[in-house]
Batch of 2 targets.
Target 1
Amino acid sequence: MKRLHKILLTVSLGILTASSLSANAVDEAAALDVKKVCDVGANGLDAVLATAVKYNKAAKEHGVEFKRLGITNSIYISDTLAAVKAKKKETVLNYKSKGKKKTKKFSTDYAAWRACSFAVRALQQKHEAESTWRLAVPGDGFK
Amino acid sequence: MLLKIAKISALVALATCTLNAGGFDTQAEKDRTALVAYSEAKFKDADKNRMYFPYSTDDELKNNFPKNIKHDAFALGSYAFNSRGKSQYDDIKEMPPYEDAIDEGEELYSKKFANGKSFKDCFPKTDIAGEYPYFDDKKNSVVTITSAIDECLVSNGEKSWNMKKGKSAKLQAYFSFATMEAGKKVNLKIQSQAAADAYERGKKEYYSQRGYLKLSCANCHVQGTGQRVRAEYMSPLLGQTTHFPVFRLKWNSLGTLERRMAGCNKDQGENPHKAASGWMKDLLYFMAYMSNGMAIDGPDIRK
Amino acid sequence: MKLAKRLLIATAISGLFATSSVAGNADLVKEGEKIFNEKKLGNCLACHGANGKDINNPGSFGPKLQYLEAWPEDALYAKIYDPYTTNPISAMPAFGKNGWLDDKQIKALVAYLKTIK
C-alpha cells in the first residue's frame, strides 16, 4: 500500500512538473529574440538545433507544432540532427505525403535555422494569441 | 397549506431552472447574433461597403456579389455571394455525386454488428444532424456526430472507422439528408458551465492565430469572407457547418467536418489536430453554435 | 598621371564590391520574381497583385502592390520579415521571423519589389 502511494505520488509529481515545465517553455520562448537565437552563423549548428529540440517538444505538448508542405518540424529537427552528426552540408528530409514517401533537400544551415524558428515561433505565437485573439471576435472584441 | 407551499416551490424551482438554462448561453448568443449582424452588414451592398473589401476588384463588387444577403442564405458558403461560382454549383446539384453515399449510409444504418445490434440501437431516429455536437455533462466532453458513431461501434465490440471519410462520412450523409428532408434546423444548447467553457475554448481556438502562416480561422472566414486567395473566395463562418458531410471536388469524395478542419489547420501551417481530440470537438461545438437556428442542408458539394 | 590612373582603378574596384543595395541586380530580381509567384516559395500572389506585372490570378487579401520602387529597401525587408509590428492581427505572415523565407530570399524579393512602379 505504501509502495502504491509512493508510485502515485511520483507519477503525479512527474505530470505536474512536466506540465509546469511545458508552461514555462512558453514564457521562456516568449522572451527570446528568435532572429538572434536561431542564427546559425552566430551560434553554430549544435546550439541552434538544441534550441529547436527544446522548444519543439513544448510546442508539440501544446498542440502548436508547425508543419510546412507535408513536413512537420519534428522531421526537420530529426533529419537535420542526423545530417549534422554525419557532417553533411546538405540535409535530406524524409517525409510522407498522401501515402507516398518523399524527400526534400535543404542546406543544413537553412534546415537548422528553420527548425529553430519554427519551434520558437510556435510557442511565441501561442503566447501572443492570448492577448490578441479577442480583437477579431464580432460581439466580443472586434470593432 | 402544505400542498400550496409545495406547488409554489415547484414553480420557483422550474423558473430558476429555466432562467439558469438561459444564462449559460448568454455570451454565445451575443457572439452568434453579432456574427449574423456583421455578415449581413458586410454583404448588404459590397460595392458601397468597400471598407469590408479594401482590395477587391470593381468588377467583382459590382457584378459578382448580389446585394442584401440574409442570414439563412449564408449556408451556401461562398456561393452565397459568388454568383458566377453559384451557376457551376447549381449545375452539379442537378446530379449530385453524393447520392450513392446517402444510399450506402442507409444500408450501414441497419446493417447488424457481430453482436446482433446495429446503429439503430444507438440512433433510434435519423433526423438528428441538427442535434450535434452537444455537450455531455456526464462525460464532461463535447460529442460530435463522428465521435457518437465511433462510440456506438466501440461499445458494440466493432472496430473504429476512419473519422474523416469512408463509412462514417456515408452514415453521416444519411443522417444529414434525413434531417434536411424533415426540415429540421441546427438545434444546439449550452446548459451548463462546463458546456459554456467548452464553447469558449472552441471560440478561442477559432480566433487564435496559429501555424507558420499565423492565420486564425477568422482571418479567412470572418474578416476574410468575400476576399480571395488567388481565385478562391473565402466562405463565411455563418452557415459553415450546416452542409456536412461535404463532397469536395478536390477530394473527389465525401468528408466529415473533422476532415475539412484538419485540412484548414494544415493550411495555417500547423500540424493538424486529430479528429478525436478535445481540441477538434470544442472547435466544432463553437462553429456549429454559430449556425444555430439555421436549416441543415447537407450533404452538399463544395470545391 | 600614374597615381591618377591607380586611383581610378581603385575606385572602380571598390565600386564593384558595393553590395549594400540589392536593387538593380538582375539575377536577384529574377529570383525574387520566382519567390513572389511560386506557391511553394513565397506565394505572394495568393494575396497580392502587382502594378505593371503580369501576375496570374492574384488574390484580394492584400493590396495590389504599387510604387514600391519608392520604398526604402529596409522598409520593404522589415515588412516581409515581420508585418505584425504595424498590425498585430494582420493576415500577412511573418515570412522572415517565422522561418519561412531566409535573409537571402527576402533580399531577392526586395530586389523584385523595387521594380514595381
Note: Chain C has one domain: 21-113.
Target 2
Amino acid sequence: MLTNPMRAIWTIARRDFVAVVFSKAFIFFLLGPLFPVVVGLAAGMLGASVRQDLDRTLVGIAMVGHDGDRLIAARAAMVDQLPGGAPEFAVIERLRPGQSFDARGLLQRRQLAAVVTGTLDAPVLTATPGRIDQWRGMIGLFAARALTTRTEAPPPVRTDAVVTSAANEHIGQVVTAQAGQVLLFLLTMLLAGMVLSNLVEEKANKIIEVLAASIPMEALFLGKLAAMLAVSMVGIAVWGAGYGVMLLAGARAIPLLATPAVGWPLFLALGFAYFAMAYLLLGAMFLTIGGLANTVREVQTLSMPATMLQLIVFFMASFAVAMPGSWVERVAQVFPVSSPYAMLAHAAQSPDLLPHALALGWQALWVLLIVRGGALLFRRTVMKSGPAPQRKRRSAAA
Amino acid sequence: MEHSVGDLAVLGNGAGLRETPDPRDLAIEARGLVKRFDGTLAVDGVDIAVPHGAIYGVLGPNGAGKTTTLRMLLGIIDPDFGYRRVLGSEHPTDLAHRIGYLPEERGLYPAMKAYEAIAFLAALRGVPLAEGRRRAKAMLEDYGLGHAADRQIRQLSKGMAQQVQLIGTLLHNPDLVVLDEPFSGLDAINQGRLEQLIRGLAARGATVLFSTHVIAHAERMCDSIAIIAAGKVPFAGPVDVARDRLRPQVRLETRERDGRWRAALPSDARCDAKPQGGAFWYFTLPESGTEPLLRALIEGEAGILSLSIERAGLHDAFVAIAGEAAARALDQPADDAPVKGRR
C-alpha cells in the first residue's frame, strides 16, 4: 500500500505521463532527433559526393623524354606505402630537352590539380600553395625512386601491434568522457526544457487550485518530474533502439569509443543514473522557474536564459575534464548542477566507485532541496501563501 | 476584539450563537484569520465555527474575502495570523480524503475524458483509480450525463463540465464539502438540482460549507451563515438569529384613517406615516411583543381591518448587519467588485 505522498506523486506522474506519451505531439518529439541526423546524413552524402568529384585529382606530367613515365612507375611502386595514397598521374606531354612548357597555362585550361615539369633530377611542381605543401615531398620521393634502377617494391616491414598504449588509453578515455558528457548534455537539454512549461497547463486550466487543496505541493512537483523523467526514458529507449539498429545495419561511420575506466556496463548504468540526476536537478529548477510564469509566452522568454544556464554548466564540466585533479574538477564535481557531468567524466577516467555513491547521494539531496524550495516559492508567489511563523504561533497561542 | 475559545459562538459584533459549542462538535473552527496580499488586507480577523452536519453559507459581495477565507480553511494558503482547525486537524491538506472542494474558478484537463477526469480528482483524494472510474461512470449515469462519460472535457458545455467537476468533488464521499460560489454559471434548473444535492449531502451527515453572493441561496439552504464584508465577519451564526437581529415588521390596515390610535402604541413601535395613498401602516413590532401591541391598538380604537406580522428577511438582516454599501455590492458582477480588503 502506497503512503499518501507517494500515492499523490504516483497520481500526478501517471496523469502527466499518459497525457504526454499518448498525445500526437509525442510522435514528433520522438522524431525530433531524427531531423538533425537526416539533415546531417544528407549533407554528409552531398559533401562526400562533391569531395569525390573534387578528389578525382589528376597531376599532369610534362617532363623531358620518358622521365614522366618513370615517375608514374615510381608512383605505382610506392603508392600503397604512402599514408593517404597519392593522386593519379598522367603524362600530358613528353618534352624534348630544352623545350619550354607553360604549366601555369595548362592549369588554367584543364582540370588538373598540379603539373610536374622539368627532369627527375630537378622536378618542378606547379600548383596552388596548399597542393605544393601537400605534394612537394611526395613528388621528390617519387623522383628519387625513379632515379634508382630498382623496380621492386620496398622491403616489407615486420609489425608488432599492441592493443593500446598508456597514452592512447588515456586519450581514448578522455574522448569517452567527453562523448558521455556531450550525450548527457544533449539529452538533458532536449528533455529538461519540456519541464519549463509544465505547470502552465495547470495554471491556465485553473486546476492548480484543486491540486493545491488535495495534495502537498512537493508531491505535485515530484510527480511532474517523475512523469517527465519517465517520458524521457521512453524517448531514450526509442532513440537507443534506433542507434542499435544503425549499428546492426553496419553503419561504420558511428565511432567506437575507448572502454571507460569502470567498464562499459557500469559506465552505462552510471550514465543512466547521472542522466536521471542531471535531469531532476535541472528539471526541478526549470519547474520552479516555469511555475512562476503565467503564460506560454513567459515560458518562451524564460527558455533562453534556461538554455544558457545549461550551456554554462556543460562548459564548466567539459573544462574540468581537461584538468583532472585540479580545483576546477573538484568544484565541477561538487557543484550540484554540474556534478552529474563531471562525475560521468570521472567514471570514464577512474575506476573508483565510492565517489559515485557519494555523488549520487549528494545530487539526490539537492533534488529534494530544490523541489522543497520550489514548492515553497510556488506557494508564496503563485498561490500567494506563506505564514509568518513566529507571529502566527503567538496569535494561535493567544 | 479579543476572542477566546469560549467566545467562539459570540462572533463579529457579539452576534450569533448564544450557546458555547463544544469544539468537538465543530467541523470547522477558525479564529482571527488574517491574510494580506502584497500589503493589501484581504481578510481581517475572520472567525467561523461550522458545526458538523450543517449547511453553512459564507455570504458576501465579490471581493469581500470569501474565497480567501475558504482557501485558508482548506490549507491552500496559510493565514498570516490566526488559527484554523478543520475536522479536528490544523493541517487540512492531510485530510484531503475527507474533504471535497469545488473552487470558484472551475478547472479540468481539457483532453481528459469526463469519467477519467472524475476518477483523477477522486484519486487525488485517495480513491484507487479503477474504483474511481467505476464510481464515476455510475455517478454520471445518476446525474443524467452517462452519454458524456467518454467525451473529452473540451467537448462538453460549460455547465456539463461544471457538473463533472462537482461529481469529482463528491466521488470520494467526503465528510466536509466546500463549494466556492457553486451556483454561479448554472441555469435555474441546475441550481435547483444543486440545492437538492446539497440538502442530500447534509442529510447523509456531511458538512457543507459554501460561499455565495446570492442572499436567496443562503436563506433557502443554510442553517447558519457568516456574513463577510471588506474582509471582516460582522455576523456568524444561525440564519434565524441573523433575521432576528431585526424586529418583525407589522402591516396594519385600520378603519381609523387619521392615525390617532398611534399615541397608544409602545414607544419602540414608531409609526410615523402611512405611505402616500396606501391603505397600510408599517412599523416594527415592539420589543414587548404581539399581545401588548394588539391591546394597544384595541385600546386606541384603531379599528383593525387586517394585521400581519412579517419576520425580517435575510436581505434586510444583511443590510442591517453589513450596511447598504455591502448589500448593493452583492448585486455587482465580479468585474465591478471593489478591490479586496483595504490598505
Note: Confidence is low (pLDDT under 50) at residues 1-18, 335-343 of chain B.
